[in-house]
Amino acid sequence: MIDLLTNLFSDYTLRTVALGSALLGITAGSLGGFALLRRQSLLGDAISHAALPGIAIAFLLTGSKAPLVLILGAGIAGWIGAALISVVTTQTRIKYDSALGIMLSVFFGFGLVLLTYIQRQPDANQAGLNSFLFGQAAALIEQDVFLIFVIGSVVILLIALFWKEFKLLSFDSDFLGTLGYPIRTLDYLLTTLFVVAIVIGLQTVGVVLMSAMIIAPAAAARQWTDRLGLMIFLAGIFGAFSGVGGALTSSLIPALPTGPTIVLIVSAIVLISLLFAPNRGLVFRRVRDWQAGKRLRVDAVLVDLYTLASQHSSAEYPHSERVLDVMSSISGPAHQTLKVLKDLDLAIPIDSTHWSLTPEGVLRAERVIERQFGGDS
Amino acid sequence: MDYAIDIRDLTVAYREKPVLWDVDLQVPPGVLIAIVGPNGAGKTSLIKSSLGLIKPAAGSVLIHGRPYSEQRSTVAYVPQRGSVDWDFPTNVLDVVTMGLYGRLGWFKRPGKSERIEALKSLAQVGMEEYATRQISQLSGGQQQRVFLARALVQDANVYFMDEPFQGVDATTERAIVELLQNLRKQGKTVAVVHHDLQTVPEYFDHVMLLNVRRIASGPVEEVFTEDNLRTTYGGRVAFVSALSAARKQ
Known about the structure:
The complex is a heterodimer. Chain A is mainly alpha-helical. Chain A folds into two domains: about 280 residues, ABC transporter involved in vitamin B12 uptake, BtuC, CATH 1.10.3470; about 90 residues, Orthogonal Bundle (Arc Repressor Mutant, subunit A). Chain A has 18 helices and three strands. In chain A, α1 crosses α2, α2 runs parallel beside α7 and α3 runs parallel beside α5. The longest helix of chain A has 29 residues. Chain A is elongated, with a radius of gyration of 30 Å. The N and C termini of chain A lie far apart (about 70 Å). The mean pLDDT of chain A is about 85. By secondary structure, chain B is α/β, with parallel strands linked by helices. Helix content of chain B is about 35%, strand content about 25%. Chain B has a six-stranded mixed beta sheet with strand order 6-7-8-3-9-10, sandwiched between helices. A four-stranded antiparallel beta sheet of chain B has the order 2-1-4-5. The chains are: A mainly alpha, B alpha/beta. At the A-B interface, α8 and α9 of A face α4 of B.
C-alpha cells in the first residue's frame, strides 16, 4: 500500500494516468448528476457510442491521431447524435427510449464499419484507434491530461455559473421558460457540456463503458444526500476516487485494463450506496420497517392486555397467552412480543402462560389508546 | 376596455390535430375565472400557450394589453403538481425561491432577502415550518401549497393555475380557495383550470367552458347553464343533469 502511494508520486506514467482519470471522474460525475435528475442517464450511453464514427472520420480526414483532433471529431458526432435524438423525439411519433436505441446502434455500427475499413489500410499509422472501444488509460500522456484538465475546468466553471438555471431546468423546465429563460438554448448548452465531458473520457475509459462514468457516480451520490449541491459534489468525488483507484489497481496487476477497472470500482461504490446509505439504503429501510413493525406489535399486545384488564377488577389479573394470540390479528403469536414487554417492564408473567400489566404498562397502554383514538373522544 | 387576459383567435395544433380552435377569451381585471371542460379539451394548452410555452398556429394573447414576453414579471404560473419529479434533491424553501429567479436574472444566486421573501409566502400558505423539509416528504396537498407559494412570491398581477385542487384534501382545498379570494381582493386576476363542476359557482365569479372551441365564457350566473354544460361535455347528459339537480338544492 505504501509502495503504491510512493509510486503514485514518483512514477511518472502512473501519476499521469491517475491524475487524468481523476479529472475525468470529477467532470463526468458532476454532469452525470444533472443527467440522472433529468432522466437522461442513457443519453450518455447514446452520445458515447455516437462519438465513435466521429473519431474514425476525423482520422480519415486528417490522418492525424492527435488527441485534440480525435476529440473534436468525437464531439461533433456525439453532438449530432444527441441533436438527432431530440429531433426524432419531437418531430416523429418515436418515443425517447426508441430514439436513443436507434441512434446508439446506427452510429456505433457505422463507427465499427469505419474502424474496420481503417484497419484494412496498409498505413501503419492506423494502429491504436481500436483502443477507443474499451479505452487505454495507460497510454495517457501529459498533453492528454492537460487537455482533460482544461476542458474539465471549463465544464465545471460553466456548471457553477449556470447553477441556478440548470437546477430549475432539471426540476421544472416549463416554469423556467415562463420566467423568460431560453430553455431550448439552456438545454442545448447542458447537452453540449454533456457531450464534452463524455468525449474527453473516451480515450481513457472507451466508448462502450463511458456511460458508467456518467451514471454510476451520480446514482451513488443520490443515495447519500437530499441536497443538489452536495449530490453533484459527491458524484464528482466518487468519479475521481474510482478514476484514481482504477489507475492504481491496474498498475499493480499486469494486463488489467484501466477503463474496465475504473468502472468496476465505481460499480462497487454504487452497490455499497444502494445497500448502506442512510434513509435511502436498502439495509436502513429494512431495519426501519422491522423496528416500526416491532413497535406496532408491542403497542397492539399492550392494548389487548389493557382491554382484558379493563374487563376485570384489577390490572394485575392474569390473562392467558392463548386469548392474546386470538385477539390481535397483526401481532400474530403473542409470546415473543410479551417477552419484549417484559424486558420493557410493561408486563410481567404470572406463570408460564399467564401475563398481567405492570402499572407502567397501564400508563403506556392508555397513552397508546389516546394517540390512536385521541381525535374521537 | 383593458382586459387582464385577452386571447383572440387562438389556434393550437398538435401534429395537424387541433387542440384549440379559434378560441377567444376576455377576462376583466380582478376576476377569478374557472376554465372547465372534459379531458383533452385543451385547458392546459390554453394556459401554456398564454405563457409562451407552446407556440400557437394562429392567434394572439395579450396580458393587460401587451404581449406576454413584455409582461413576464406581472404573470405567475402554477403548473400541474404531477408535472415535476418530487423526489428531486431539494427542500421546500428552495422551490419557493425559484419563483424569484426571473427577477434575479442570469447568474445571480438567491441570497438572504430572497429567502426572507420566500418564507413570507410560505407563511401565506401555512407552510412556514416546512421550509427545510425535503420535498419528497410532502403530502399531495403540501406539494400544491408549495407551488402556490412559489407563484405568490412572484408577486404578479395575473395568475395562471393548472388544476391546483387536483388530489388535495378538504383542508387544503379550503385554504386554497381562501388564498384565491385574497388575491381577488387585492385586484389580481386568477385563471384556474378546474375539474369539479359542483364548486364552480361557489369558488369563482367567471367561468370559461372549453372543448377545443370556446363554448361560452363570462360571469358564472350567465354562462354556467345546463345547455352550455351539455354542449361542452357532449353525451354525458346524466352527469350534467345530476349536477343541475345538485345546484338547485
